[in-house]
Amino acid sequence: MKNEKPPSGMPGGGFLFASGRSPDAERDLAQAESPVQTPMMDAELKRASFWIAAFAGIVSVASILFDAVRPIVFPVTILAGGTAVLLFVRMLFSRTYRQGVYAVNREAQGNDPWPGRARKFRDPEWGLFGSRAGSPALLWLRAVFILGPLPIGLLQNWLDPEVLWLWIAGAFVAMELSVMHAALSKPR
Question: For residue 131, what are the contacts with CB-CB under 8 A and spacing of at least 6?
Fold first, then answer.
């Protein structure tokens, strides 16, 4: 008598589908079997974020060369920083992105005896120009932002600190776009 399930619709009993699963289990199974879907707004958000990061890089380089560009460095830094925060919050509160990041983490580590070890820049899948890290345009933008701190660091004594902060904000946007792309991409 203890192992019997109460009939459906009775107190303590739950509605079961013909498969014998609860509605929550059916929903979770459907989400696991269906391809990853994100709202159309995400495509527009990612596209706008890409152009904001590209604009941040252009403004930071132009401010080094032209004094007339320096007044817009701070507002563009605020825009790029706000975009970075928005993308982070979007990934943080989206179940799809969180699950994708966990899956990418497991897949990237594989059966590495030292999990957490950094991948090489030349790795064909996870490296600087890896197939899982974004579109070709995003890969080039990310590469420029990764390699850019070297010349900016050398010119630091002659530059305003806002230029460096703008570069860092643009780099964060590019990195978050790569993480979002990897989280939504399927293994190839």
Answer: 124, 125, 188
